[in-house]
Every structure is written in structure tokens, then in C-alpha cells.
Amino acid sequence: MVRSGQGVFFDGITSTRHAVSVELDRSAVLVRAAEGYLLARWPYGHLERLSAHDGLLRLGRIGNPVLARLEVRDPELATEIDSLAASVDRGGVAERRGRAKVVAWSLAAVVSLVLVAVFGVPVLADLLTPYIPDAVERKFGEAVDGQVRAMLDPGHKGQAFECGLAEGEKEGRAALDRLVGRLEAAAALSLPIRAAVLRKPEANAFAIPGGHVYVFQGLINKAETVDELAGVIAHEMGHVAQRDSTRSVIQAAGLSFLFGMVLGDFVGGGAVIVASKTLLQNSYSREVERRADAFAVDLVGGLGGNPRALGAILVRIDGGSHPGVKLLLDHPDTRDRLAAINAAAPAKAAGTLLTAAEWDALKRVCAGR
Predict the structure, then answer these.
(1) β-strand 212-216 against 205-208: which pairing, if any?
(2) CA terminus-to-terminus distance, the chain
(3) Domain locations in the chain?
(4) Per the confidence metrics, is the pTM higher than 0.70?
(5) Phi and psi dihedrals of 311, rounded to 5?
(6) By CB neighbour count within 10 A (0-12 exposed, 13-18 middle, 19+ buried), where does 57 fall?
(7) Pick from 271, 195, 259: which is nearest to 232 by CA?
(8) Cα separation of 293 and 337, whole Å?
């Protein structure tokens, strides 16, 4: 064990190089002048390694008011100092530990962000969505409505993209309004329902924030009874009642989007585009779909219609959706949904939600002039 050796000392006051002897006692490095008197006593815990080229150990004292430094070239003496003073760390152990800590904390931060995104944001969205004012959701829905229609209408047909506006379709539109009005009155929702039939061949329907419900022409073509169509519309009204589309947007876009909604700062930027894409690519969980099915069963059954009709049309169109939008169906559990619908609702004959003439007109709502 080397306990002493030679070194060069700079007192930090002058530029003079002092050839010194370096001694290592139990607690400190002793720096002595050639004449033997003590120039400095630096405790091991106060040492810090200063930048130097290979083969040279340059030391300073932490917190020293002057820039005094000690240089040691003897490798054995330098190694001994390194072993006695953890802060010197010539082997880079502390530096490696520091880097490891940085990596560990970075990984922990990433994991925390992932956990917040996966678990925290959905929980907060569930808690906060019911408290969004109706007026804010309606305003948001109006902004999303225009963007969604533009995305669904690649041919830029404009008003012609919506069924029921042409002269020969107005009776069908009136029948749709009557059906939706009966469902809406029985549901007693806080948001008014704004239903529209779009000229899309898919057998589909979906809802967006603010009470907007879209029914595709393909769904009306597939519906064999008014109760089947009523069941689908009632299902989407269940999503409106539970604010499922609003919650879905918040979960996908994060809390910043929620704050933007509360502040009303979403109409002019890209937030509406993000929300619209989220809604068009959305697929609700089985539990969300189950709640909407249960809502539809109660609503249609309460009006005297056949609540099992919803299950019938789901089975008929299962597997027939076109590429792109897939909002009505969740294919893996259609049979489970059918079983739950049938278990919750007794079989009934078709009710009187619309007269035969009204249903015939509604079936022709997209027939044109």
C-alpha cells in the first residue's frame, strides 16, 4: 500500500509550481513543501477530480475559495487516493452509477407517462365527462359535424349528400323525424337529437358529441321493420345519453383536449380534425356497447315496439360492413350481444312506432326526386 509520493502543488494565489511530497493519513491527503512544512490538508471527502489528460490525477478541494490544485503522476499513489476518496472516482464508477440513475429515472418517467395514458386519462375522462356543460358539447358537436361530413363525403356532394332534402324525399324525412321524435321524447335526453341520413352504402350508424346521429342509407336498405331501424337509432341515442363519443375523444386526445373543450378553444385549429378522425376510427368497448344495447331495449320496448329487433338486424348485417367506418358493430361479440338483448326483452310483434305508409316513405328517404 503506497502511503506517500511526489506531486506538484499550485496554491491558487500565484502561478508558481511547488514540488511537494504527498502523504496519505487515515482521513486526509497531506501536502508538504520540500522543507517539510504543511501546505494543505484536504480530507478525502472534500476532494474532487479535475479535468486532466491521461496519466495525470489532478485534484481540487470542494468549496475551496481559491483555485488550489494538486497533481499526481505516480499511478500507484493515484490509485490509492482513488480508493480512499470516493468522490475522486478515477475508475468512473460514480459516473456510471449516475448515468444508470439517469436511465432508470428516464425509464420510470416513460413508464409513468404510459400508465397515466393507459389508466389515468381514461379514469379522469370517465369522471369529468359528465360535468361538461351541454352548451359546450353542442358547440363542439357543431364543429365536428361539418368535419365529419366532409370526411364521409369524398365526392363533395354537399347538401345532396344528405337524404330527405330533395322534393321526392321529404315524406321520408318527415317519417324519420316522427320516429326520432317519439324515441327522443321517451328517452328524455338533456341534448336534442339531430338525426341525418347520409348517402353511404354501408349498413351503419353512429353518434358524435352534441346529439348528432347519422344513419347510412345502407342501414335503411337492410332494415326489414321499423322496429329494427328504431333499435339502431335508440342504440346510438344510448351513446348520446352516456356521452360515449365525447369520452372517447377525451381519452384519445388527452386532458389538454378536455381543457380546450371547457375553454371553448377547439373550433379554429386542428383539434376538430383530430376529434373527427378519432370518432370515425373508433370502436367502443364491449361494456359500452352493452350499455347502449340495454338503453335501446328499454326505450323501444317502452314504446310498444319489438326490442329484439335490434338483435335481428345486428345478426343480419354482421360481417357485411365495408372497409373504413366500423362504428355500429363489434364483430367478435355479436352473438353475445344478441343473447343479452334476447334475455332482456320478451319477443313482441311489430309495434306502431310508424304507420305502414310512414315506414314505406322512410324506406324511400334516399330515393331522390
Answers:
(1) antiparallel
(2) 105
(3) 4-90, 92-131, 132-363
(4) no
(5) -65, -35
(6) buried
(7) 195
(8) 8
Enter the C-alpha cell of residue 162.
344528405
Half-sphere exposure of 246 (CA within 13 A, CB side): 35
Residues, the chain: 369
Query: So what's the pLDDT on residue 87?
Result: 72
Query: Residue 258 — very low, low, confident or very high, per pLDDT cuts 50/70/90?
Result: low
d(Cα 251, Cα 245) in Å, to the nearest integer? Answer: 10
- Distance, in Å, from the CA atom of 128 to the CA atom of 19, rounded to the nearest integer, reads 73
Q: Which helix (H) or strand (E) holds 230?
A: helix 226-242
Q: Which three cell numbers stand for residue 158?
A: 354537399
Please name the residue ranges forming H helices in 153-284. 170-187, 217-222, 226-242, 244-253, 255-263, 271-280
Query: Per CATH, which fold does 4-90 belong to?
Result: PH-domain like (2.30.29)
Half-sphere exposure in the Cβ direction for 222 (13 Å, CA): 26
* Closest to 354 (Cα-Cα) out of 197, 174, 222, 185: 174
Residue 361: half-sphere exposure toward Cβ, Cα within 13 Å: 19
